[in-house]
Request: fold
Amino acid sequence: MKVLILGANGRTGRVLVSEAVAAGHEVTAAMRTPQAVPGVEVVTADLRDPTSIETAAKGQDVVISAIGPSGRKASGLYSDAARTLVSALTDTRLIAITSAGVRHDDPNFKRVYRLLAGTLMKEAYDDMRLMESTIRASSLDWTFVRPSRLQDEPATGTYRVEDSQTPVGGWQVTRTDVARFIVQELGAGEWSRRCPTLAE
Reply:
């Protein structure tokens, strides 16, 4: 497939690029500040500029959003991106990474992370919720991948997936496992308009 990855120079984005290329997909890496990435086309795109995203997404089969702020504050990044994507995409499928903590009443979301999501990270989680609700209200074919706490560790292959809630007892997952789940979903298409939530 032809795949555009937004946030391709972030920690999860870089793993996604690598896994998608390894799976044989034709990958385009979209960045606000382009950096060379071996084996893929790199384009300049700004999620607050619908025209640049529309241009980057032209001819793509799937757009994957792996965006994220550099600190605790989102400063409207997720919600701005949602409005841009709704405006720029038409028939292109969207897979967006958010977080297990987006669901307020997730019965299995670890208590300490629930507290963080409601205090130090409240602004970012509220913005992710706004992103999801904006895209849900559109006609896009979307999937929200909600990982639990992301780990920079080798893939385990033992993660679990539940729809819209954290797997019981789960609280973390590796970035590589998340990337591999998304790459597998590119061909399977099993999670359209659903929220796969990942944890070991």
User: Anything to note?
Assistant: The chain has a mean pLDDT of 95. The beta strands are 2-6, 26-31, 41-44, 62-65, 93-97, 142-147, 149-151, 160-163, 172-174, 196-199. Helices lie at 11-22, 50-57, 77-88, 111-118, 122-136, 175-188.
